[in-house]
Amino acid sequence: MAKQKGVVFFEGTLGGINFYYRKGVPTARRAGGGFSAKAIKTSSNMVRVRESNSEFALCSVINKHFKLALKPFMNGYKDGTFHYRLMRLFLSIKDLDVTSERGQRTVGIGYATEYGPRVLSDFVVTPERPQLFSCSYAFDWDALRLDVRNFSIAAAKFPKGADVMEVVVGVLRFDFETCTYTSVMADALYVPRDFEASSFSITVDGLPEGNGVLVAVARVAFYQQVNGGLFLLSGAAGFGVAMFGCYDV
User: Fold this and answer.
1) Nearest one of 242, 239, 205, 207 to 223, comparing CA atoms
2) C-alpha to C-alpha distance for 212 and 193, rounded to whole angstroms
3) Which among 145, 118, 116, 121 is positioned nearest to 131, based on CA atoms?
4) Most-buried pick from 81, 157, 164, 170 (CB within 10 A)?
């Protein structure tokens, strides 16, 4: 594969070379090097490709709706890699399904294994702020509470110009089969720069209704106070989101 060079670019086949555009870039390659759509659909040599495509399509649907479910926590955050990273997460969870045949493995069965919630919890939602706090924190599923311990305001990593740190916690219920979801959000906690406590907790008032798995989500964002109002500060390092999977469905 090579890029075309020149002023005028050609599309089509000439002298055994295919000329075409790839992602907007004029490209050329030797003809006959690929597979046709018909071959992918019918050839016995392409069974693995068809199986992978089927599973990929199911994960893609889940990815789309799960991002919508996370939207209340992601507002104000921009990351061009998030869609692809989240897709890889669901593909890896799907791979935990060792009971279904290839081509029929699902995220739901994969998540229901011992490692499913752990894989989701280990997923780094916001790479620029992979840890919400520089201290111990965890979600207590029995109490439906985010507990933050040994907290230090000096280590909270306030961005320049920030006056307040906002902490939002909620519990999401997501059905991997129907891609439906519900959530319950706790009231936001606002932590000013002169915060002196070494610990705090935020409790969610009950579980969301419906069917599906439970995922707790916590968000940290920073605001500047201007004329009595709070304005979200841009900057990736000042925005963090974490997920906590639950083993009890």
Assistant:
1) 239
2) 39
3) 121
4) 170
